[in-house]
Amino acid sequence: MSSLLRIIRFTRSLNPLYLAIVVCSVLTALAGLAVPFIIGRATDVVTSAVNGEMSAGDAVRAVILLALVLLAVELVNTVVSNVGGWFGDVMSNRLRTILSVRYYDKLLHLPQRWFDAELTGTIVARLNRSIAEISMFAKTMSNSFATMLITTVAVLGISAYYYWPLAVLLLIVFPVYVWLTSLTSVKWQKLEGEKNEQVDIASGRFAEVIGQIRVVKSFVRERSELSDFSRRFWSTDATTRAQSTHWHRMDVLRRAALNLVFFGVYAIIFVRTVQGAFTLGEMVLLIQLMSMARQPVQSMSWVVDSSQRAIAGSKDYFRVMETPIDERTAAMLAARVGVRDTAGADARSGAADGDEPGTRTGGLTTLSEHPDEAALHPVAGAPVVAFRHVDFAYEGDADVLHDIDFAVARGEKVALVGESGGGKSTIVNLLLGLYEPREGAVEVVGHDSADLPLDVLRSRIGVVFQDASLFSGTIAENIAYGRPGAGEEEIEAAARRANADTFIRRFPAGYEQIIGERGLKLSGGQRQRIAVARAILKDAPLLVLDEATSALDTKAERQVQKGLDELMEGRTSLIIAHRLSTIAAVDRIITLDEGRIDEIGSPAELATTGGIYAQLLALQDSGQTKRLAKYGITG
Ligand SMILES: Nc1ncnc2c1ncn2[C@@H]1O[C@H](COP(=O)(O)OP(=O)(O)OP(=O)(O)O)[C@@H](O)[C@H]1O
Ligand SMILES: [Mg+2]
Q1: CB of 394 closer than 6 A to ligand 1?
Q2: What architecture (CATH level 2) is domain 2-322?
């Protein structure tokens, strides 16, 4: 229950709507309650006419008048309940919107580690379910709960007025019914949780499989993927049967209790009328009131049931909402004065929260106006990037990096070379602040990067990731991802430098070409060049290339390299490449061996030490020689 109250507190902006709904419900309930009185009165008039106590003409006039009043009351009921319904629809949709936007906001600020441990599809399935259940509950409740409550109270009062034992009987029914229902709910919820877990796992896999359908097809795993999915979903069948058996068994119990009580109620009404304690009209009134009381009692099981679901949903919701964001993200948000407030203010003003993500989440203040801009004033003489005795583990204490210690001076080009899995990309991840070192520190322009606001830090780094990681949408949108306001010319210039302009123009829609999910419609090399163009356009002072040109052929790579060389001119760069030709022109090479620095030196120096770089050179040369030999060329 407390989690439902939390939802209400969480969505304070909806208070006026909640109020409007309550007002409509009260009016609807009052109009509904008037009906039995009118019909009871009409019954009495008819009885008097039949008994000859009233003239037929008077009686007809009276009943027609009563029928007209009935019409008016019912029309009011019809209109007001629909107005209330409208408020209910708007409220539940806003509730869903607010909850979804906040959830997304939260997710976007969770640490990388959190995502490492979760499947996308599972996150999405959980979000959809919990929010849908909360807003469904809010909607149905708002359209019936207040009315039900008022009706119940009124019926109790009225029946107590006519004959108190009736009220006592009704009073017993409610707690017994609610008690039996909540008994049912505990087990029901547990089983529901088991079902949800299976469905969430299946949904997670589902999203993964659809996202990588090519792999599934090529390894002909459709059947086994499907059977796994089907097994999980079918496992909910047995659970559902157990769940439903339990529910219906308990329903028989509580409805039987209800039937028993109403037996008593009706028996009392009939007997007392025969004894002359009630007029016929009063009997009709009471019978109608009782059937009005019956409905809330029965809906009570639904209310308890769906409120339990909504409670479970809101717990799931708040579990994610309460996941701590890392300190640096928190610092970044705190520094972004206004962003959170604006979102809150919008929610308060009742505007659909998050209808313009560009202005609010995008309120991620542009960097030039960042309050902490000063934090990045370089410390005189400090290297642009420095790793100070960094140890790092993704999980537990299984260190992936050991005592990494190096510095990159302003304008210097440094290459990281080492075996696959040696920790090169991990160094990039640490530099970007996606993870924190376990020991030691990463410094940027002389500041411990742990003290820098993350957005300031990241705005300074243009990175081409090992997997090109594009988004669905157009080529132009992708290139401009790091600089949303960039003009057409800037986008094209960046593409030209990345040697992408030519192939882009070959598409029928050119820069407006839609490239599919994660850029699926592009070749690997095309994707890489878009990613390079994206980093070029960002124009950050520190450039990080993680295998940025690995998917290109030698010719295309040369061309991209030319663009990159120009870009790297006077810019600090960290380059990871397997192809040695790519790094021949760097100032220094750092070789990594199983997460440890092996050597640091210029390409010329390292060529002669017999270390990793020299070995790679030798391997490449021998390959070259063999190939040349094959064509009858030697030397
Ligand atoms: N998110 C992660 N969670 C746990 N372990 C990880 C994660 N990412 C990488 N690793 C592990 O860290 C080690 C270093 O990985 P990293 O990606 O840094 O290697 P790399 O040098 O970039 O290799 P490659 O040349 O193949 O790209 C690997 O053993 C890998 O299994
Ligand atoms: Mg890597």
Answers
A1: yes
A2: Up-down Bundle (1.20)
